[in-house]
């Protein structure tokens, strides 16, 4: 898989005016270190924020720009920042960067951290100034060893240049930044589970309220933002609200650009910075090049394994949260996966649900017991041993594990692709029901966790 923001040569040319996240990337894919980053206007936004802007003005600018979280939930960043306490007597606050990126089919944050580590550091520096946080942590997926190496080097470069540490840019503001590698759990992508893990606890989500802005790391006010979200901040501060909003396509309710990609048996799998509002068809045909010879597009997911499947006729939907919602699912991380016509949907879903079942923290009953149940039923159907009523039981689980039914969003994300697969490809599930099977009440079937 190519970690690049390049599209076909005749389609895209990156520039600071149109590609705020990726215009500094090197053609050889090597990391951009401090000298080169500063030569490409790096840290100019931070200098502007420290010299010319009040802290509240930075928050308001990000809010006015319409920046939303890029980790999948899409919560307005400026609104989230505004939840941090205004009480000046609270002098211990934290900024956390969620770099756990364990969503299957998603690798956008990895590219930013490996190739543009100083962009993330600058985004965190400006954000820390706005939020009055004195310490920051990049909570990094443990398997991202190259990203860890590059981030740690970039942190040391920034310290040596007086861009981190004490009295930054002569402002009297102090900010320390640390790279913290996690032990490797999907649930750490949930912000309160991430906080628990950072504190050395089991990575279970916390009950909310209180929200992290009030009670976060070690009981102190904490703001958690995604890597790509924070990397948008320097361009917004440097070039302004109107310019940032102008980047999105007409009709999009989301502002700016987004790292989007396509994986699967497409001709040109990769990652590109594109304006919100491009259609799925543009992403699939013009950038990913369509399916490889001999394969036909069966369905696709718009933004990671936790989003619902869509059909080829849905490719004309605009790629922004509201545009994808109109065709029945979520934008998610914006990195799509193409499923070709050789794939059996039951097998694909069994594989997905095994992953989600394994990654459940086990805190709440619907998720802890419901996901292994779905795996057992899917495995039986996959082997042609399904019983009459199994599909209805699976659909019941989709309802029982849906939004608002579990402690966090893990289970709803896990069953969304299952529900959509049954909706569009029910005949493939029916093919796995044994023809002579009798209807068995769901609770009469033995469920062995991990079986």
From TrEMBL:
UniProt-recorded Gene Ontology molecular function terms: 4 iron, 4 sulfur cluster binding; FMN binding; metal ion binding; NAD binding; NADH dehydrogenase (ubiquinone) activity; quinone binding
Domain NADH-ubiquinone oxidoreductase 51kDa subunit iron-sulphur binding: from-to ranges: 346-391
Main enzyme class: translocase
UniProt-listed Pfam families: Complex1_51K, NADH_4Fe-4S
EC number: 7.1.1.-
Keywords noted in UniProt: 4Fe-4S, Flavoprotein, FMN, Iron, Iron-sulfur, Metal-binding, NAD, Quinone, Translocase
Catalysed reactions, as listed in the record: a quinone + NADH + 5 H(+)(in) = a quinol + NAD(+) + 4 H(+)(out)
Names of required cofactors: FMN; [4Fe-4S] cluster
Keyword Metal-binding: yes
Mitochondrion found in the keyword field: no
SUPFAM superfamilies linked: Nqo1 FMN-binding domain-like, Nqo1 middle domain-like, Nqo1C-terminal domain-like
Main function: NDH-1 shuttles electrons from NADH, via FMN and iron-sulfur (Fe-S) centers, to quinones in the respiratory chain.
NCBIfam families from the UniProt entry: nuoF_fam, PRK11278.1, PRK13596.1
Family per record: Belongs to the complex I 51 kDa subunit family.
UniProt subunit comment: Composed of 13 different subunits. Subunits NuoCD, E, F, and G constitute the peripheral sector of the complex.
Protein name, per record: NADH-quinone oxidoreductase subunit F
Source organism: Pseudomonas silesiensis
């Amino acid at each position: 898989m190519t970690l690049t923001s390049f599209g076909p040569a005749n389609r895209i040319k990156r520039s600071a005016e149109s590609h705020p996240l990726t215009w500094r990337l090197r053609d050889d894919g090597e990391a951009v270190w401090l000298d080169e980053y500063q030569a490409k206007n790096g840290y100019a936004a931070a200098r502007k924020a420290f010299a010319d802007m009040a802290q509240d003005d930075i928050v308001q600018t990000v809010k006015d720009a319409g920046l939303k979280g890029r980790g999948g939930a899409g919560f307005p960043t400026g609104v989230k920042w505004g939840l941090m306490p205004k009480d000046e007597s609270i002098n211990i606050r934290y900024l956390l960067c969620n770099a756990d990126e364990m969503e299957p089919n998603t690798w956008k944050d990895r590219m930013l951290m490996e190739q543009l580590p100083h962009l993330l550091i600058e985004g965190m520096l400006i954000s820390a100034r706005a939020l009055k946080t004195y310490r920051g942590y990049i909570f990094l997926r443990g398997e991202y060893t190259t990203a860890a190496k590059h981030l740690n080097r970039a942190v040391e470069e920034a310290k040596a240049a007086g861009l981190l540490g004490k009295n930054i840019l002569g402002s009297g503001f102090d900010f320390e930044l640390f790279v913290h590698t996690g032990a490797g759990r999907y649930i750490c992508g949930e912000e309160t589970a991430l906080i628990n893990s950072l504190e050395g606890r089991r990575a279970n989500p916390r009950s909310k309220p209180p929200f992290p802005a009030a009670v976060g790391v070690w009981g102190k006010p904490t703001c958690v933002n995604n890597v790509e979200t924070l990397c948008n901040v320097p361009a917004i501060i440097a070039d302004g609200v109107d310019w940032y909003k102008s980047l999105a396509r007409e009709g999009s309710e989301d502002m700016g650009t987004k790292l989007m990609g396509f994986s699967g048996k497409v001709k040109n799998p990769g990652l590109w910075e594109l304006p919100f509002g491009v259609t799925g068809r543009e992403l699939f045909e013009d950038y990913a090049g369509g399916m490889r010879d001999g394969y036909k597009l069966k369905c696709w997911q718009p933004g990671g394994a936790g989003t619902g499947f869509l059909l080829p006729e849905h490719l004309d939907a605009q790629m922004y949260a509201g545009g994808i919602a109109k065709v029945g699912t979520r934008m998610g991380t914006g990195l799509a996966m193409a499923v070709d016509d050789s794939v059996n949907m039951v097998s694909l879903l069994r594989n997905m649900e095994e992953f989600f079942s394994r990654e459940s923290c086990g805190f709440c009953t619907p998720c802890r017991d419901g996901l292994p149940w779905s795996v057992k039923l899917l495995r039986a159907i996959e082997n042609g041993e399904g019983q009459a009523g199994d599909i209805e039981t699976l659909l019941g689980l989709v309802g029982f594990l849906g939004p608002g039914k579990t402690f966090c969003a893990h289970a709803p994300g896990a069953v969304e692709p299952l529900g959509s697969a049954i909706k569009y490809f029910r005949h493939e599930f029916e093919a796995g029901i044994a023809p002579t099977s009798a209807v068995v009440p769901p609770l009469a079937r033995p469920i062995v966790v991990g079986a």
